[in-house]
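Quick entry between incubations.
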Amino acid sequence: MKTDDLVAALSAHIEPVNRRLVSRTVFIALAAGAVVALGIILVGLGVRSDLTTARALMFLLLKLAFTAGIIGVASAYLTRLARPGAERTTSSISALVPFAAIVLLAAISLGLAPSSHWNKMVMGDEWLECLLSIPIIAIVPFAVIIAAVRRAAPTNLVRTGAFAGLIAGGVSAMGYALHCTDDSIPFVAVWYGGTIGLRTLAGAVSGPRLLRW
Amino acid sequence: MTTHEIELKALMLASLDGDAASHRALLERLSRRLRAYYKGKLAGIGRDATEAEDLVQEAVLAIHIKRHTYDPAEPLTPWVHAIARYKLIDFLRRTRASFADVPIDEADAIMAHDDNVDAESTFDVRRLMARLPKKMRCAIEAVKLDGQSIAEAAVKCGISKSGVKVNIHRGLKALAALIAQETGT
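Done. Structure below.
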């Protein structure tokens, strides 16, 4: 087939294009993923029962702020990375800010506590549940976000996959925070931060296969 | 900013608003630049330049299908270049060459030369179309190859008008995947 024939064929009946389609698709996927994660928490694990105490509420807000910060920064990057060539003008370094903040707070918190408490502060009661729940709950949000990004045209698949994983991990951790009763900043830094980091890594590794177009 | 950038971006914006003549002019001009770009790249790494035409058509198809990912606030040249380069790397990976062989180039390289020697690609779209599901094939043949209107195609294929549009869209994507498969073997 001649290229001119292909061009002619593609130019018959052109529809106007919605220029906001990329960011709209990503945000719809994000919302859908969040609804699924929330549903799994509400139905599967249940919301923590002590939310009437000020301490529980304060730690819930801290966890929500940490995960919301991750989701906010990462989704702004993802809508850019979904477009061809955007990685050349986009530095992703500020995605680390929420992690740096929580690690700093965790260090301060450990520094103020006697060292005999450190083990309990880091490991909490339910570290294994946290370690398993966040990556598992992230599966559906990750799939939905990947499906949305596939409709666009990322050209750096490793980085785009990493951000899809980061957002899915953030959404999942945000939902899990409603259930989790381990209230210490080092616990959040290690187990929330760590599992979200693992999800990000998995996204980076699978990105080139899942996002190819 | 070069005159190419200004003219091509104007065509792109008109094309995004649904102007078929601008879309055609844009794809024609880009295909000539893509041809020069790919011939140069393939020759530079000792590959056969006849493969260039396959790549030109893959890139043209990608630019068409992915045109909604162009952000009008940005210049057009880097967007086209990113797609062209992505398709080149993908092609070399599929055909088992190392993408480390692709020399670093500037976005402007894509607009540097014009090559209007149109060649046949090594695949035949009509033959590949035979592998598409019936509705997709019917919709694409009617509208894209035979130049019928959406309404005529809807009657011919026995589906709704929006069904024709959806089938064209999905069919072109499936076709792009088939072309990728075909050139990868």
